[in-house]
Amino acid sequence: MIEILSPTMVARARETGAVVAEILQTLRSRATVGTNLLDIDRWTAAMIDEAGAESCYVDYAPAFGRGPFGHYICTGVNDAVLHGRPYDYTLADGDLLSLDLAVLTGGVAADSAISFVVGESRPAESVALIETTERALSAGIAAARPGARIGDISHAIGSVLGGAGYPINTQFGGHGIGSTMHQDPHISNTGQAGRGFTLRPGLMLALEPWVMTDTAELVVDDDGWTLRSATGCRTAHSEHTIAITDDGAEILTARAPASHLARP
């Protein structure tokens, strides 16, 4: 299903996006050396409840997962890039942490992800991965405008990821979003310009470029959820929910400026 939202629903989506952005920003500041992933999950649950929002993840049970996700946020460390299920792990200096969060308020969902390095270390490989996904996300957003096509977004994202020399996995990518978290259309992280669904005002999309250093192949943890690079290489993931407007794209999950190069 491809859903076109009314102006009233888009206004509600702005409120949801602000909740997601604030929670991620707060978690980024709290996720330091010595933080346990299960603490991050507990903090997230408390902030979702305080905001009067509803988790899109805790009861989420798609065909590709193993039962309900059972947690409130995805936490990917180093080689874990997607659907990272929180577990008893304490963050160390130099870990590359990806946080992916989706919630629902007022009947509308918003979805966003950030990646950053924990502690004082700044491994060049990790910084390059993060910067590339952020640049690809910006390129995808710039390509999203009325009359453009989904393939234009995919091509813009893929040009940045591929141009940086990273292999691109096309199994998982961005997606439509609205009254539910995951909707059509699928937005591959590479593709051919001029192809696919035509964008129009009221369409909401979650764009999520993610990349692995030296492989496009994923493996699944025993938890049935966490997706890791097949070679154990580092990974990064950036995501925003946007709404197509008459003039272009509005970022609904925009956060206050913060550089992964600076200490959280």
Automatic annotation (TrEMBL):
Documented EC number(s): 3.4.11.18
InterPro entries per UniProt: Creatinase/aminopeptidase-like, Pept_M24, Pept_M24_MAP, Pept_M24A_MAP1
Cofactor needs: Co(2+); Zn(2+); Mn(2+); Fe(2+)
Transmembrane portions of the chain: none
Domain of life: Bacteria
SUPFAM superfamilies per record: Creatinase/aminopeptidase
Free-text comment on the cofactor: Binds 2 divalent metal cations per subunit. Has a high-affinity and a low affinity metal-binding site. The true nature of the physiological cofactor is under debate. The enzyme is active with cobalt, zinc, manganese or divalent iron ions. Most likely, methionine aminopeptidases function as mononuclear Fe(2+)-metalloproteases under physiological conditions, and the catalytically relevant metal-binding site has been assigned to the histidine-containing high-affinity site.
Residue positions binding a divalent metal cation 2: 111, 175, 208, 239
Catalytic activity: Release of N-terminal amino acids, preferentially methionine, from peptides and arylamides
UniProt key word Phosphoprotein: no
Molecular function terms, GO-annotated: initiator methionyl aminopeptidase activity; metal ion binding; metalloaminopeptidase activity
Protein name: Methionine aminopeptidase
Source organism of the structure: Pseudonocardia sediminis
Lineage: Bacteria, Bacillati, Actinomycetota, Actinomycetes, Pseudonocardiales
